[in-house]
Design brief:
This protein is of the alpha+beta class and 171 residues long. The protein contains 5 helices and 11 strands, in the order αβαββαβββαβββββα. Strands 5, 6, 7, 8 and 9 form a 5-stranded antiparallel β-sheet that branches. It is elongated and about 55 Å long.
């Protein structure tokens, strides 16, 4: 988890350990605070981040090295065997840079929930696009940034407030 990676790097005890064999510290499983890559780089190690879900066998997007330093909020570009798209609530594609639900299709996407046809039907849009439930944007170069879980948005006075954005500022 990203916050665990940050805590590991910031832990005083780590400075007493022989870390010569440690080349990279990676994270995934949640939107990574943008300071994570900077914090890890201070240790003189590479940082990587990835994005995936149980339903996609992980491996949807990944980023590391200089690209990650340039785009610390990103989880990277889609891996070659995966198609991603950002859509509105009806499943219509949004223009690059617009936030919406990230949907995924490809060889790594599961076919459905075991003995749960209703849940499976709700999980997919037409064309085999799996609904991740994650709010994301994709830029013109193809980099994906996961902003939050759609169900984790706090709606206050008509404004959508991202819990992940608050955590990023608080870290």
């Amino acid at each position: 988890m990203p916050l665990q990676a940050i805590e590991l790097v910031e832990c005083e005890a780590i400075r007493t350990l022989d870390m010569s064999s440690l080349l990279t510290i990676g994270a995934g499983g949640a939107a990574a605070p943008s300071k994570m890559v900077e914090t890890i780089s201070k240790l003189g190690r590479g940082a990587t981040n990835g994005y995936g879900l149980t339903e996609t066998a992980g491996g949807v997007c990944s980023i590391g090295g200089p690209e990650y330093l340039k785009r610390p909020a990103s989880c990277g570009k889609p891996n070659p065997i995966v198609d991603v798209m950002v859509v509105d609530a009806s499943g219509h594609p949004l223009r690059k840079g617009s936030p919406g639900e990230l949907v995924v299709r490809g060889a790594i996407v599961f076919r459905g929930y075991w003995n749960k046809p209703d849940a499976t039907e709700k999980a997919f849009f037409r064309g085999g696009w799996f609904r991740t439930g994650d709010l994301a944007v994709q830029d013109d170069e193809g980099y994906v940034t996961v902003l939050d879980r759609i169900k984790d948005l706090v709606i206050r006075a008509g404004e959508n407030i991202s819990c992940a954005e608050i955590e990023d500022v608080a870290c």
